[in-house]
Every structure is written in structure tokens, then in C-alpha cells.
Design a protein that fits this description.
The structure holds two protein chains of two kinds. Chain A contains twelve helices and 19 strands. By secondary structure, chain A is of the alpha+beta class. Chain A has two domains: 175 residues, Uridine Diphospho-n-acetylenolpyruvylglucosamine Reductase, domain 3; 223 residues, Alpha-Beta Plaits (2-Layer Sandwich), CATH 3.30.70. In chain A, the strands form five sheets. Chain A has an eight-stranded antiparallel beta sheet. Chain A has a five-stranded antiparallel beta sheet with strand order 3-4-8-6-7. A two-stranded parallel ribbon of chain A has the order 1-2. The longest helix of chain A has 18 residues. Chain B has one domain: NAD(P)-binding Rossmann-like Domain (Rossmann fold, 3-Layer(aba) Sandwich). In chain B, the strands form two sheets. In chain B, strands 3-2-1-4-5-6-9 form a seven-stranded parallel beta sheet, sandwiched between helices. In chain B, helix 6 links the parallel strand 5 and strand 6. Classes of the chains: A alpha+beta, B alpha/beta.
């Protein structure tokens, strides 16, 4: 199957397709759905090393890891991601400042190239560092071996701190990063002036008490239909954010929660993307280096507020200084801001082009997994190793994203 | 994305029932069988997996052990060829497992109706795989269940067995016959404490149906049907549609008069 792909008709392996843009698309070419390739090859309950086929869903991996007292080394905000996808996007989570991105815990993987070669590769091997964060372009990932992290319980002890200005975020983040494994902040993008970037800072550690029950597999709620277009307009976003802010402010203080609602809030609602209506939405996630983060994030928020296109979910998080494992890994030391915008056509694209300029000036970059439109220059400036990476791309593999940014 | 708003932090219902079932799966490499086997594995069951390809069976066994199975044995066997010896094999596995609680018969062969109409070999293969060999395994299982007076036989039939249609009547007749056979076994087991169930899935996204156009509300995943098989071993009547809405759909399809039905291309 893999060997039938060639430079003339390149293919692409895809998993659960949770990347928001076109890095998982290959129009006019073939895609290989890896989700059926999901066997666990081995799991050592004593040292937490799991080796599993690339199509294994992180949700399934957790069903096995958690009861044995282990957790994923890091996890994105959804557990409906395959292991192969987690490697190919070098995904990060709320514990990045403590654990690095997913690739940092990958000990070994097997790569199938379209010329028929099959290689086991490990840290130190240049092909390994091309494959981690390599967007599935260096070969088909057959299996992945990673080191899980031990947990005392399936629960987290967390606390919420509200802040009224985005500047305060940076002080809180600096203060909490040494005492909390999981941190992130939710920011309201609809308030201006003195309240610009009010938000809630969440921080948590694994709780020392509680059982090791994994999450329920059934989503708690479902969105059966696309919402009508008026559902998420600037007004409703503002109302939603205000209510949310007030509710969270009221419960300011410590809490004890299962990992599922804390780490995967949206997985509780099946097909939540339909809330954005049939036209859908754009994600925009950038990271700015520490030197420019304060000014850059404030500038980004001001631009969004001025545009009147509120982002219902805006998340800030500080990445730690761990060196990325992949040549194209998105995380680097600094602050990341993730936004989503309802698709309002030209208007939204213009706003994102304005944001691009701020990010580029600040020396930041955008997350390929969340991008469907960044210009090639933006990608190439943000990922200076892209030329080196190019040498490791399997000529039999390609994606719409790659053709767009590396042409 | 914050983690706490709107969720009660109550997760008490999420522990999985732990059972010590001893389970035989015939045709263990089918996508539906694998899904069912993973549920048993998480419950801590002991399994015997039977199918043709030993290498793939061993890979599945490792997966099931990692997912919590108490132990997994694999048997590489041509189930059609070995059907006449079904009783002997089941006795051997019973000894190996120290008893049998559930037997799932999941193997089958969809085949092609036009080919079956043209080639006696294809027609024989469809009927042998889905009916002739299958009933031998079912009967052997039934003999065991009648003797021990507990446990369950679950055989995978199909909604195709509910009405003869031009597109797959060989497969449909064989699967329909299998359901009747299992229904008879269920009758013979009535009151013993043991049970038999024919599960009739509708469209399922598995390698077996790769030739068909998939997607839409009538298609189920192998995982969904795997859950139905697991549940059928514990409760429900002798004929179970999977998912349940197919009972209504098929009742309607059976009720359509021939002069209307014959105008369709189904």
C-alpha cells in the first residue's frame, strides 16, 4: 500500500483529522486512514513505556494507562488524536513548561518510507528529529514508543485566579510556573480599555489522593446540527464571555477535579465545532518569544478588539525553555496565544493578516496544525529549519499545507 | 481552554465492571470481533482467539493483554475446514480455559452475488462460510451450553437475512438461515440458564464492506457493533438488531409488497 505512493502521485497518512487546517488534506492525491491501525504492541506497567501502532487514539491509550497509574507525558486539549498525529504535530499541553512537547517523551518509532524502507529511529537520529513535528511528511509512522508519566490519582487539585488586565497574566504565569505542573489562562477578547484581556488563570497539580478511574468514553453532550449563523456573533460572544468570567470569578479558589473535564473540556460535547455554523471557523495560534511576548500579546488583543471579531475561546500559555525535539516543532520558549474566529470571509482573513504582521515583527511563529492560510513567507520565517527539514521529506508523501508553504 | 466550568467533578460511575469471563471468539480478526474482544480485555476476561492468520492473532493478543485481558491464547485454524470437528475443539478449549462462559461466532464471507450466480465455487464458499460451517460450530456450542446450563452463544447474522434481495441473496439466505438456527438453539436452551443470540448488524464500516459507499446515518462503526455483541452475551432476546433501529427498518422492508419491492434496485 505504502509502496504504491510515488512523487507523481503522493499520498498522506491521516489519523483522526483534528488538525484544523490543510496539513491533513491531500486534494487530488490519496490519504491513508490510519485509525484502524491501533493495536497496542506492548505496555510495561512497571516503567510506563508503551509501544503502540500510530492509529491508536489517545483516548484509548488513557483507558489503559490511567488504571495502571500512568498518564500521557503531555496531551493536547482533545483526547481524540492519534499517537501518530501527536508525534507528527509534536503536540503540547498545559504542562509544556514542565514536560515539553509530546516528542520529548518519544523514545523510538518505526517509519515506513514509500521506497519500501522500514526504519526504527530514535533520539539523536536526524530522521527522528525531522519526523517529530514533521507533519507526516517524512514517512508513514507505523508505531510509536513513548514514556508515560506516573500519576498518584486520576484527579487534579487546581486553583483559579482571575485577572483584569493581560499584563497581569505574565506576572501570574511567572509566579505559578514553578509550583504547578499544569497552567493556562483563558482570556476575554471582547473587553477593551482598562479591562483589555481580563481573564482567568488556571493552575493544577495531580492530586495525591483519589482513585485511578479513567474517563467515560461517551461524550456528555452532543451538538446534532450546525448552529444558525447568528449564534456566535460579536454580541453573543461578549455575553457568553461575561457570564463565563463572572461564574469563574465566583468560584475563584481551589478545587478538586477529574482529569477529563480539566484537560478535555470540549471532548464532553460531541461535534462542538457545529456551534460555529456551516461556514465554520478559523483557528489562529502563535507563539512569541519571551522578550517580545508582553508587548506582542497586548498588541494582538488590541487589534482583535478593534476589529470587533471576538474570539470565544482565547487561551494563553507559557511554553518552557525545553528545546523542541523536532525541526518543525511549533513550541518554543515564550507565550502562546490560541484564538478561534468565526469565518466571516474576507473580514476574518484581513484580521488574521494584521495579526501575522504583529507575530512576525515579534519574532514569533504560527502553529501549522491550526493553520489553513498562512503565507509561505510567514511559515519560512517562523521555522528557519524548514530547508534542512526538506531533505528528509519522503518524495511519495505530500499535503495541501506543505505544497502551500514550501511549494 | 479552562477545565472546570459547568462540570460536576463526580466521576463515580466510570469504573468498569470486572468479570472473569472465559471467552472463545471464532473469527477473532474481524473488525467487529476485535472491538468485542477489547471490551472483554478491559473487563479482565480470559480469551481464546481463533482465526487463520497466526501473526495477526499474536499481534491482537498482545494488544488485548496490554488492555487488561487476564490471558489470551491464539489458535490459527481454518474454521470452515475444521467445522466437522467443532465439538472436539470446543472441549479442548474448555479444558485449556478451565470452563467456557461465552462463545462468539463472528467470521463470515460477504462475497459477490453476480460472481455467485456465475460460479458454483463462489456460491459454495458463501454458503459454507456463513451457514454450513457456522451451524456446526453453533451446534457444538449449544451442546456445551445445554450440558453446563450457563453461558452464552452469540452468532453474527445480518439484516441481509431478513428479505431476499437481488444484490446479495446468497449471503442473505446463508445469514438468515444462521439466525433461524440460533433462534432454535435459544428455544432449546429456554429455562436452562444458558442463552443463544443471533445479532443482526446493519451497515458496518469494516474491511468486509470496503467495496461499498460508506457514511451517513445508517452506517455503524465496528466498535458500536462490538459493544452490541458484548451486551448480547448478557441480555436481550434471541434475535437482536445492531443498532436496534434496524428492527424497525427491517420490519418495514419485510412488509413492502413484492410488486413495489420489485421496482427497486436494492
Amino acid at each position: 500500500m505504502v509502496k504504491t505512493l510515488s512523487a507523481e502521485s503522493p499520498g498522506l497518512a491521516v489519523g483522526l483529522r483534528r488538525s484544523y487546517g490543510d496539513s491533513n488534506l491531500n486534494p487530488d492525491g490519496r490519504v491513508i486512514d490510519m485509525t484502524g491501525v491501533d493495536r497496542i504492541i506492548s505496555f510495561d506497567r512497571r516503567n510506563g513505556v508503551m509501544r503502540a501502532e500510530a492509529g491508536l487514539c489517545l483516548s484509548q491509550a488513557l483507558q489503559v494507562l490511567v488504571p495502571a497509574g500512568w498518564f500521557l507525558p503531555t496531551t493536547p486539549g482533545t483526547r481524540f488524536v492519534t499517537l501518530g498525529g501527536a508525534v507528527a504535530n509534536d503536540v503540547h499541553g498545559k504542562n509544556h513548561h514542565a514536560a515539553g512537547a509530546f516528542g520529548a517523551s518519544v523514545t523510538r518509532l518505526k517509519l515506513l518510507r514509500t521506497d519500501g524502507a522500514a526504519q526504527e529511529i530514535t533520539t539523536g537520529d536526524p530522521l527522528f528529529h525531522a519526523t517529530v513535528g514533521g507533519l507526516g511528511l517524512t514517512g508513514l509512522i507505523a508505531w510509536v514508543e513513548f514514556r508515560a508519566t506516573p500519576i498518584p490519582s486520576a484527579y487534579l487539585d487546581g486553583e483559579d485566579t482571575s485577572f483584569t488586565r493581560v499584563e497581569d497574566y505574565f506576572d501570574i504565569a511567572a509566579e505559578k510556573k514553578n509550583s504547578f505542573e499544569h497552567t493556562m489562562a483563558w482570556i476575554d477578547c471582547s473587553t477593551k480599555g482598562a479591562k483589555l484581556g481580563r481573564g482567568i488563570f488556571s493552575s493544577a497539580n495531580w492530586a495525591p489522593y483519589g482513585d485511578l478511574a479513567p474517563h467515560l468514553e461517551q461524550p456528555r453532550r452532543n451538538v446534532p446540527l450546525d448552529a444558525p449563523d447568528f449564534t456566535l456573533n460579536a454580541l453573543t460572544v461578549r455575553a457568553f464571555n461575561s457570564v463565563r468570567h463572572e461564574l469563574k470569578r465566583m468560584r475563584h479558589g481551589p478545587y478538586h477535579t477529574h482529569y477529563d473535564p480539566f484537560l478535555y473540556p470540549l471532548d464532553g460535547i460531541a461535534q462542538w465545532n457545529r456551534l460555529y455554523g456551516a461556514k465554520g471557523f478559523y483557528q489562529y495560534q502563535c507563539v512569541l518569544p519571551p522578550a517580545t511576548a508582553r508587548g506582542g500579546v497586548t498588541e494582538l488583543l488590541k487589534t482583535i478588539v478593534a476589529s470587533g471579531q471576538g474570539s470565544p475561546l482565547a487561551v494563553l500559555k507559557d511554553f518552557g525553555p525545553n528545546l523542541p525535539a523536532g525541526m518543525l516543532s511549533f513550541p518554543m520558549e515564550g507565550t502562546t496565544l490560541a484564538l478561534d474566529f468565526r469565518n466571516q470571509g474576507e473580514r476574518t482573513l484581513r484580521l488574521m493578516a494584521d495579526l501575522d504582521r504583529i507575530v512576525a515583527e515579534a519574532g514569533g511563529r504560527l502553529y501549522p496544525a491550526k493553520d489553513g492560510r498562512m503565507p509561505a513567507e510567514m511559515f519560512q520565517a517562523g521555522f528557519p529549519k524548514w530547508q534542512d527539514f526538506r531533505a528528509y521529506v519522503d518524495p511519495g508523501l505530500s499535503s495541501a499545507f506543505w505544497r502551500r508553504v514550501a511549494g | 481552554m479552562d477545565g472546570s466550568l459547568g462540570y460536576a467533578p463526580v466521576q463515580e460511575d466510570i469504573k468498569h465492571a470486572h468479570t472473569s469471563n472465559r471467552v472463545i471468539i471464532l473469527g477473532a480478526l474481524s473488525a467487529i470481533a476485535t472491538a468485542a474482544a477489547r471490551i472483554y480485555a478491559r473487563e479482565g476476561a480470559a480469551l481464546v482467539l481463533v482465526a487463520r492468520n497466526e501473526a495477526r492473532l499474536l499481534a491482537l493478543a498482545a494488544d488485548l493483554c496490554a488492555r487488561g485481558a487476564a490471558n489470551v491464547a491464539v489458535v490459527a485454524m481454518d474454521l470452515e475446514a475444521e467445522a466437522p470437528n467443532a465439538g472436539k475443539h470446543i472441549e479442548a478449549w474448555k479444558t485449556q480455559l478451565g470452563g467456557i462462559d461465552h462463545i462468539h461466532l463472528v467470521y463470515g464471507y460477504l462475497g459477490s452475488q453476480p460472481e455467485a450466480s456465475a460460479s458454483p465455487a463462489e456460491l459454495s464458499r458463501i454458503v459454507t462460510s456463513n451457514f454450513t460451517s457456522a451451524v456446526h460450530w453453533c451446534e457444538a456450542a449449544a451442546n456445551l451450553l445445554r450440558r453446563q446450563k450457563h453461558g452464552a452463544l452469540v452468532a453474527v447474522s445480518s439484516v441481509a437475512g431478513d428479505r431476499g434481495r437481488q444484490s446479495n441473496y446468497a449471503y442473505g439466505a446463508a445469514k438468515g438461515g444462521l439466525a433461524l438456527y440460533v433462534q432454535g438453539i435459544a428455544h432449546s436452551l429456554a429455562g436452562t440458564g444458558a442463552r443463544a443470540v443471533a445479532v443482526k448488524p446493519g451497515f458496518v464500516d469494516t474491511p468486509m464492506t470496503d467495496g461499498l459507499k460508506k457514511g451517513g446515518p445508517m452506517w455503524a462503526s465496528a466498535d458500536q457493533i462490538g459493544k452490541e455483541l458484548r451486551r448480547a452475551a448478557d441480555r436481550g432476546g434471541p434475535i437482536q438488531y445492531a443498532p436496534g433501529k434496524w428492527r424497525i427498518v427491517m420490519a418495514i422492508i419485510r412488509a413492502v409488497p413484492a410488486f413495489v419491492f420489485h421496482k427497486t434496485k436494492l
